Amino acid sequence: MNKEFIESAYKQAKAQYAELGVDVDAALKQLNQIKISLHCWQTDDVGGFETPDAVLGGGGIQATGNFPGKAKTIDQLKKDIEKVMSLLPGKQRLNLHAIYGDFQGVKVDRDQIDVKHFQSWIDWAKKHQIGLDFNPTCFSHPYADDGFTLSSKNEKYRKFWVEHVKRTRKIGAEMGKQLGSPTINNIWVPDGSKDVPVDRFTHRALLKKSLDEIFAVEYPKEYLKDSIESKLFGIGSEAMVVGSHEFYLGYAIKNNKLVCLDNGHFHPTEQVGDKISSVLQFVDELMLHVTRGVRWDSDHVVIFNDEIQLIAQEIVRSNALGRVNVGLDYFDASLNRIGAYVIGVRAAQLAFLFALLEPTEKLKKFEELGKNFERLAYLELLKTKPFGAIYDYYCLVNNIPVGEDYIAEIQKYETEELSKRK
Ligand code: RNT
Ligand code: ZN
Question: 72, 241, 281, 311: which sits with the fewest CB atoms below 10 Å from its CB?
Fold first, then answer.
């Protein structure tokens, strides 16, 4: 795109927002502070590097599609993430799963992982001046095959998973320490049952017991933050998920943990955007897994839809940008994975920009005065304001391909890199 054109469109857009009382430069400054945590698993369909041919298995999450170019090595994954970051304005973070360790071809079981397996990632993050987030991987493992991990009645399995998660906290704390930015270690377990269970209570008591054991070790908040992620149901856990929203919300409030809200994990008519201002009354911080469910928790590529707009608006309107940690969580193998990645992050950034360009105080005034027509009229008008021109300018000043220009970059990467991967 032509530089003069972008700049003049920006000027015009800025003037339009100024008329509404919106300070565009201030909005861009705030946008630039939002660090979206890039989920490493979009590059390889949640395979990881435990074995050369690791694939996602069990746990009710699925990647569908077989588009060429899946990352098969750490070097490929790093290259992919670097490509993604080169097409995004602002700074991001990287969100790793435990199965993405640098195991050097050695079989390291989950209860044996240690900092040394992630040191090369920490060094890489240092080089790129980004923070890392982390996750235990309680799926794709024989000890998860019967559907229960931290809430298993099989004490050998339960202990195994407790040890695994303990180790991820230790590794996460070291990441945060070395990188000077706290790592969020997010715990999600697939535990649940396909058919009607009769003993939900014991499984939930076991999950609570396991979490208590896991969190017995304390780490400084500057290094590590713990978050826990609920789910309503999954494939194979339709009748009950042990770690439900009530379960983790209760646990987080009582134990001062972060709640991770994944917008694919609720009933389709529920809105995560609506939950933010509730949960923030009771916990210090939130983690988000921004995703797009189509009819179910399908983890489609994030797009600029109503759901993501409401999430961003509610964070901005609650003045809670400093208390909500934004991460993405989707995996679509049916299209260029790197393109899918960039689309999703840009959509999330756009949603925040759109929210930041809202004359919130003005709208609140209407609301307080009972002027609901005026409130709705402005909300509708805002939808056609030129926020795209502001985003283009944001890309321009960050030396990032503007508008459709990133598509050609991805096509080039596909030809030169992805299509050559066997
Ligand atoms: C699964 C959860 C979880 C995973 C990742 C890979 O339903 O959303 O966050 O997607 O841990
Ligand atoms: Zn998630």
Answer: 281
